[in-house]
């Protein structure tokens, strides 16, 4: 689960940093031109290419096909333009310590100060609440928030029966897609638990989360998605 507002992942100071990065990039580009003269239209083009210029979005759009969209409160995430402004190289696994509904509810609550991109239910349903473009406050560490996608799983860390087959399989498909999208290696260095985020005091997903099962499931899902269907070739089945 997420963290309180005062964690390093929370709001505050972010716009300064983004402007800083942007200014730095433009400064570097101007230096490369090697002259103090930088035509206005040139500058315009550079602005277009620099981070912070947002991709088009559609209300209700999801990044994972099959996910339902329920918007989190905008207080629980920060608008960004990933992976152009911040590269994504981690998937962070959480456990909600509550029901699916209660997780949706707290992520909609502006006072909560935290939310993840996705929630996976014990029945395998997936709800997306924050776009992958944006930085969700879920890791309690600003650097890790900026570089990761956060996935919550419905259940309690001390209840092994909460981690159902349906949940593992749905989550593995989701993580496989995220890894493919951003070219993230499917391994334990890049798919980590909240507990492994530097500086966190959270323990999720806990000792009952079965990494030895999960990582191969993600690999299988990635291979299935990458390889052609067993009946390769033109499909003639009517209504397929
Ligand atoms: Zn967590």
Automatic annotation (TrEMBL):
Task: Could you list this entry's UniProt keywords, alphabetically sorted.
Answer: Cell wall biogenesis/degradation, Hydrolase
**Alphabetized Pfam families for the sequence:** Amidase_2
Q: Which domain of life is it from?
A: Bacteria
Q: Per the record's keyword annotation, is Hydrolase included, yes or no?
A: yes
Q: What biological-process terms (Gene Ontology) are attached?
A: cell wall organization; peptidoglycan catabolic process; peptidoglycan turnover
InterPro entries hit by this protein: Amidase/PGRP_sf (IPR036505), Amidase_domain (IPR002502), NAMLAA_amidase_2 (IPR051206)
Reaction catalysis annotation: Hydrolyzes the link between N-acetylmuramoyl residues and L-amino acid residues in certain cell-wall glycopeptides
Citing just one GO molecular function, the answer is: N-acetylmuramoyl-L-alanine amidase activity
Specify the N-acetylmuramoyl-L-alanine amidase domain's residue ranges. Answer: 77-206
- The UniProt record lists the EC number as 3.5.1.28
Please give the name of this protein. Answer: N-acetylmuramoyl-L-alanine amidase
């Amino acid at each position: 689960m997420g963290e309180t507002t005062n964690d390093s992942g929370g709001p505050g100071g972010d716009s300064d940093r983004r402007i800083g990065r942007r200014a730095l990039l433009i400064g570097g580009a101007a230096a490369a031109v090697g002259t103090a003269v930088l035509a206005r239209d040139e500058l315009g083009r550079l602005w277009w290419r620099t981070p912070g210029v947002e991709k088009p979005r559609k209300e209700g759009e999801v990044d994972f096909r099959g996910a339902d969209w329920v918007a989190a409160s905008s207080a629980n995430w920060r608008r960004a333009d990933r992976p152009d402004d911040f590269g994504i190289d981690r998937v962070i696994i959480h456990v909600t310590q509550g029901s699916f509904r209660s997780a949706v509810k707290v992520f909609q609550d502006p006072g909560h100060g935290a939310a993840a991109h996705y929630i996976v239910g014990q029945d395998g349903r997936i709800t997306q609440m924050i776009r992958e473009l944006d930085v969700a406050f879920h890791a309690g560490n600003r650097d890790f928030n900026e570089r990761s996608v956060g996935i919550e799983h419905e259940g309690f860390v001390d209840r092994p029966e909460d981690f159902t087959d349906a949940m593992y399989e749905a989550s593995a498909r989701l993580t496989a897609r995220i890894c493919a999208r951003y070219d993230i290696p499917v391994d334990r260095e890049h798919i980590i638990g909240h507990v492994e985020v530097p500086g966190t005091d959270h323990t999720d997903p806990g000792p009952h989360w079965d990494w030895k099962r999960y990582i191969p499931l993600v690999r299988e899902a990635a291979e299935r998605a990458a390889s052609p269907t067993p009946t390769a070739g033109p499909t003639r089945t009517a209504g397929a």
